[in-house]
Amino acid sequence: QAFFCLLLCIPWGSSCPPSCQCTERAGAKAVLCSSRHLEEIPKDIPRDVVFLKLDANSITRIPSNAFRHLSHLEEIDLSRNAIENIDRAAFKGVAAGLRTLDLSSNRIRSIPKEALLALNAKLRLANNPWHCECALQEVLWEARLDPDSVQDITCHTAPRDEYVGKPLLQVLDAGVNFCSVRQRTMDVAMFITMFGWFAMVIVYVICYVRHNREGACRHGDYLRSLPSTQAHAE
């Protein structure tokens, strides 16, 4: 009975992942999981954590709702991992309170803009092999990026070779607009689609008119044959 009483008395948020260290920083719960060879985000992070360090591990993906139960979370350090994929709802549940998110020095080529634009946090995205495209451009324009790391967001790949190796900010300052390129592509695709539908309508109308004309001709031939048949009978 004493054992079960002890379990009931322990608050749910006080557990600590076995590979991490739980401590306090400035009077707030901090969970330190740096350099612990983690391949995924621990499942048993205390609910009352405010500072979470997961840097220098081997994490490859941030799934949906990865931090949803951590309502007090203010800072996440995911730098120096092997992150390639980030789900659209990766930071759902912590967007309002998060102040700092460090995703620098990973393997991120692209990211759903919905995953970041909902955040009020200061973002660090430097030193990733970015593919410069419209979504990344919108993140640069609309998200709260750390000003000290913006210049290190470099185009690892791009629609044109001349942009490769250059800071994205420098490319955009030169007047390049990746979103307008996508818009022109969408406009061309829409024009081709509309032209295809228009051509189908024209073909249908022509077939319909031709069919009715042939029917009318057959009916006319039938009517013209009636008098001669009647005369022959007399």
Describe the structure.
The model is unreliable at 1-13 and 182-192 (pLDDT under 50). Strand 1 and strand 2 (28-32) form a beta hairpin. This protein has a 6-stranded mixed β-sheet, with no helix packed on it. It has a two-stranded parallel ribbon with strand order 4-6. It contains 5 helices and 10 strands. Helix 3 crosses helix 5. It folds into 2 domains: 21-152, Ribonuclease Inhibitor (Leucine-rich repeat, LRR (right-handed beta-alpha superhelix)); 179-213. The chain is of the alpha/beta class and 234 residues long. It starts with a helix and ends with a helix.
Question: Regarding CATH, which class of the largest domain?
Answer: Alpha Beta
Helix content: 25-40%
Q: What is the number of domains?
A: 2
Strands of the biggest beta sheet: in what spatial order? 1-2-3-5-7-8
Q: Could you give a short account of the major beta sheet?
A: 6 strands, mixed
* Quaternary organisation of the protein chains: single chain
CATH topology of the largest domain: Leucine-rich repeat, LRR (right-handed beta-alpha superhelix)
Low-confidence stretches: 1-13, 182-192
CATH H-tier superfamily of the largest domain = Ribonuclease Inhibitor
Query: Secondary-structure element order, as H and E?
Result: HEEEEEEEHEEHEHH
Question: What's the total number of strands?
Answer: 10
Tally of separate helices: 5
Strand content: 5-15%
Mean pLDDT figure: 84
CATH architecture of the largest domain: Alpha-Beta Horseshoe
Radius of gyration: 32 Å
Task: State the end-to-end distance.
Answer: 120 Å
